[in-house]
């Protein structure tokens, strides 16, 4: 992914409606960014805000979390918004933890819930 700032969006199943609503409500800021998203999340974001530049990767459990992790490790993702559902067990929990670890190791801004994402947005405008 060449050129421009890139934001990764991911949402667990029970948080996909929240991510779609977040994208719709914040489309002005998000429209200034290239967006990569896991498969279903990306589809829901595009349904809510079809004007956004969203590249859909694989579904999280099928490798999408790892694809985004690879983009973080190569410096192609500048920030991550990941609406995590802490109350639902996930069979790909190891992938989720690896993704978060990469965001921390590479020191990129990461929001894990709506409240933090709202606080992160003003920094994305700069």
TrEMBL record:
SUPFAM superfamilies for the chain: Methylglyoxal synthase-like
Gene Ontology molecular-function annotations: methylglyoxal synthase activity
UniProtKB keywords: Lyase
Enzyme class: lyase
Pfam families linked: MGS
GO biological process: methylglyoxal biosynthetic process
Domain MGS-like: 1-126
Transmembrane segments: none
Record-listed substrate binding positions: 12, 16, 38-41, 59-60, 92
InterPro entries found in the cross-reference section: Methylgl_synth, Methylglyoxal_synth_AS, MGS-like_dom, MGS-like_dom_sf
Active site: 65
GO CC terms, sorted: cytosol
Catalyzed reactions per annotation: dihydroxyacetone phosphate = methylglyoxal + phosphate
Enzyme Commission code: 4.2.3.3
Similarity section: Belongs to the methylglyoxal synthase family.
NCBIfam families: MGSA, PRK05234.1
Purpose of the protein: Catalyzes the formation of methylglyoxal from dihydroxyacetone phosphate.
Protein name in UniProt: Methylglyoxal synthase
Species, as recorded: Rhizobium leguminosarum bv. viciae
Primary gene name: mgsA
């Amino acid at each position: 992914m060449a050129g421009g700032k890139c934001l990764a969006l991911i949402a667990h199943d029970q948080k996909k409606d929240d991510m779609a609503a977040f994208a719709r409500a914040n489309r002005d800021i998000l429209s200034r960014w290239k967006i990569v998203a896991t498969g279903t999340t990306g589809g829901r974001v595009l349904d809510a805000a079809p004007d956004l530049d969203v590249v859909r990767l694989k579904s999280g459990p099928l490798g999408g979390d790892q694809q985004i992790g690879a983009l973080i490790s190569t410096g192609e993702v500048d920030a991550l918004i990941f609406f995590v559902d802490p109350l639902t067990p996930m069979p790909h929990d190891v992938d989720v933890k690896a993704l978060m670890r990469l965001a921390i190791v590479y020191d990129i801004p990461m929001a894990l819930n709506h409240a933090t994402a709202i606080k992160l947005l003003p920094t994305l405008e700069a």
